Amino acid sequence: MANEEDDPIIQEIDVFLARSLLEKLYLFQYPIRPASMTYDDVTHLSAKIKPKQQKVELEMAIDTLNPNYCRSKGEQIALNVDGTCTDETSTYSSKLMDKQTFCSSQAASNVSRYAAAVYKKGELHLTPLHGILQLRPSFTYLDKADAKHREREAANEGGDSSQDEAEDDVKQITVRFSRPETEQARQRRVQSYEFLQKRQAEEHWVHLHYYGLKDSRSEHERQYLFSQGHGLAENTELIKSPSEYLMMLMPPSIEEENDKPVAPSNVLSMAQLRTLPLADQIKILMKNVKVMPFANLMSLLGSGTDSTAVLRCIQQVAMLVQGNWVVKSDVLYPKDTSSPHSGVPAEVLCRGRDFVMWKFTQDRWVVRKEVAAVTRLCPEDVKDFLEHMSVARINKGWEFMLPYDEDFVKKHPDIVQRQHMLWMGIQAKLEKVYNLLKEHLTPKKQESQSARPLLVSGEQRVNMAKAKVKQNYGQLEKEFQKQKAEMTASDTSAKVDVSSIRIKEEPLSDEEPMDTSAYEGMNNGVVNGLHAEDSMDSLNGHLPGGCVDRVAQELKAFVLSTFKKQFVLTLSELKRLFNLHLASLPPGHTLFSGISDKMLQDMVLDTGCKQILVPFPPQTAASPDELKVYALWEAGDTYDQHRRVLLEIFSKNYRVRRNVIQSQLSQECGEDLNKQEVDRVLK
Predict the structure, then answer these.
(1) CB 44, CB 58: distance < 8 Å
(2) Of 36-45, 87-96, 137-146, 403-412, highest mean pLDDT
(3) Disordered: where is this region (predicted)?
């Protein structure tokens, strides 16, 4: 009562129900209009409707004089659609895209709760809506443009010779006699998507006359939105009790039996699905999906669903194969149905599909010829069975489409055991029906361990690769020891004391040392490629005798050969290539004496390369080594000048358009480069 006193009634308005436009009034919802299009009385060129489907098409004009309209684009679209010649069949007679077609779709299936209201002189007049249609742009003109393009291509090809045409006319024809259509097959055909599309296409369009907002006919029709009589006799609907009146405004949602989709139905929404009992939900989902992990099924059923109840229901409509649930054959092929391909009864189809499912419980791979030989069904039926639960692999067969669900098997061992017992019973039945041989019952040797796929983790692969590298380097070490012994015996005076060699240390440098940790495991007791059995004395990073010159020569040769192959490299990529180069060298090579980042960068600059200061964006996630870019400034070929211009362009911006690069090259070099030459420079 206190709330009612705080919210007093300000005004009472009489409500009238207008009936003149009953079952004739539609609400059109237009999309957000572009700046070059206005929804007024001059823009509608034509309109047509299919009354049974409540489908409308409106053709509206586009203001081509609007400054926001792109005229060149409009001319290009008109040229693609109609070509160069214009006639009566042309979509755009003005050689310009000057109109747009809008096609409708139903916004709501039940519009009985919606009405159009008009307020006038203290009275509210309501007219029930017969439909709410959303208008969206139609792009059928693009299909017409594609058809024109294909016709032009066919005309350019010119056709084949008369001899080829004569050979093409001779074709082998397979004749099939159709069986009488059963009632169940006719019902499935009537409910199919193709049949509904065909029936909708058969309905003819009814052309309409459009009247603008200020037209006298529109003004006349607008008067029908008002109730024609205010007498109580014509508004008996409003003389109701409050409960009856609310019932009229908000009627209960009652679905007729013939409106309910027959499961499975591809048009059943998730909202409608969740109104059904749990068992029906699972049956419809499995019938449509056919193969599904248990975790995916739980996510489709929504939060709060009891997993125990789901497990109880899923076993009634599906069987467990490799930890995943596959719909039962008798659910897909009910009693008294037959194959649409061969006409065999459902009982035979169920046996054949059960054999395929049982084969997948034994192995991940199934051969189609083997299934056809055992079941003696037509190839189309066998292909349907396999497509339900597997994927074809070239030269291998058919592989089960989902990976082995190890999590479900571990969590529910009781379900797995129960399903195993069921499969044992099915196997015994299949042995009697098909007289299965021993080769059909036992999997092949290489696949007999488990139907579970062999999975190798990345860490295992790395360990295997390291073990292989260690084995190879062990052999190389033995060869090195043998060569070392021969050299010691032949010339002891020429022996180089490599035991004193250390990794070069540069404490004053700001550069980080090169990361060669990936190769520590490959040296097999070798420090930077040199053996450390003897005692080693530090030489402060300097090599004895002429080793420094040899290291510089080897490093320079590597840098030159690398930049001759790849003209631009980051420091990170250069270090990676250097590590690969070290891995290919034998133990004891001079380059193992320790090469720091600074030595490598100095050698790059000494060989004629330059560092390109590319202005990368500040928010980049690249490492510092990836931001250091070096390029070969002079290679001695004809593209040195072009390459320098290109590097100067990228020193100003890290992302440049191709046309800008081509124009800059032509301007700086004084010659017009074709596409192939520009591609070669960019590469």
Answers:
(1) yes
(2) 403-412
(3) 146-169
